[in-house]
Amino acid sequence: MSEPLLKLEGVHTHIGAYHILHGVDLVVPANQLTMLLGRNGAGKTTTLRTIMGLWRASAGRITLAVNQDKTKRVNTKRVLDITQFQTPEIARGDGGGVAYVPENMGIFSDLSVKENLLLAARGARTVDDMDTARLEWIFGFFPALKKFWLHPAGKLSGGQKQMLAVARAIVEPRQLLLIDEPSKGLAPAIVQNMITAFKELKAARTTILLVEQNFNFAKQLGDSVAVMDEGRVVHSGSMQALAEDEALQARLLGLSLGAHG
C-alpha cells in the first residue's frame, strides 16, 4: 500500500452538545482514491469538515504528509499536525494544499462560472493568468461550464452546479481533494463524466477522499475504502474486496452489489 498522505488518530468531534465522532481512525494512502462509505448520519460529512478545520476536533490527531518540493521531483515530505490549523492554512500550500467540495457545493451564486473558477485559482488575478490547458481539460469533462462561462452560477441546473463545484476544486493541482457526495442528484450521463474526471485525477496521482452513497460509483473508482457507523470507522480495506463480498456489504451498508449494479 502507498504511504499515508492523511491520518486521523482517535479523532473526536463535538458540535454543541452533540458528540458526533467517537475516536475515528482513518488512513488515506497517497496517490489513491479512498472511499468513505456509511449509512446516513454515520459521521462521514463531519469527518471531512473536521479534516478541513471547519469543525474542531475535540480530541485526537490529524496529520498530513506535505511535499516540500513544489516541483514534486524530489520526495521531501514532512508530516504536519493540522489538528488545530485554521481552514485557510489547510487550504493553502502551508497546510498541504487541500480542496474541499461540500455536499451543498458552496458555489457563489451571484458570480459567473468564470468568476467562480478565477477565485479558486489562487495564483491568478485575471482569466489570462489561469492555466489554459487545465481549463480545456476541465471543459472536456464538463462542457456545460464552457457553454455557460459568463452565466451566473445560481442560474445553472443542479448537475451543472455540481460540475462547477468539482471544477473549482481541481482548477489548480491540489495535494488532497475532499469531496462530499459528488454524484448526488445527477443524471447518469453526468455521473459517468464525473467518474471519467476522477479516473484522470487518479492517473495524475492526485489523492482523493470521497464520500459517496452510490455504491456503483464507489466500486468503479475506489482503491481503498473505509466504512463508518455511529461516528467510528468500523471497516477498512480494499474497495475491490468489499465490492466482491455481498455479505460484507449487507452487514456494513445494508445493501448488496447485485441490488445496486
Automatic annotation (TrEMBL):
Indicate the segments forming the ABC transporter domain, all copies. Answer: 6-255
Write out the GO MF terms.
ATP binding; ATP hydrolysis activity; branched-chain amino acid transmembrane transporter activity
Could you tell me the superkingdom of the organism this chain comes from?
A: Bacteria
Is Nucleotide-binding one of the keywords?
A: yes
Write down the Pfam families for this protein, in alphabetical order: ABC_tran (PF00005)
Annotated GO biological process: L-amino acid transport
The alphabetical list of record keywords is: Amino-acid transport, ATP-binding, Cell membrane, Membrane, Nucleotide-binding, Transport
Q: Which InterPro entries match?
A: AAA+_ATPase, ABC_transporter-like_ATP-bd, ABC_transporter-like_CS, BCAA_Transport_ATP-bd_LivF, P-loop_NTPase
The Swiss-Prot or TrEMBL record describes its family as follows:
Belongs to the ABC transporter superfamily.
Protein name as it appears in the record: ABC transporter family protein 105
**Annotated organism of origin:** Hylemonella gracilis ATCC 19624
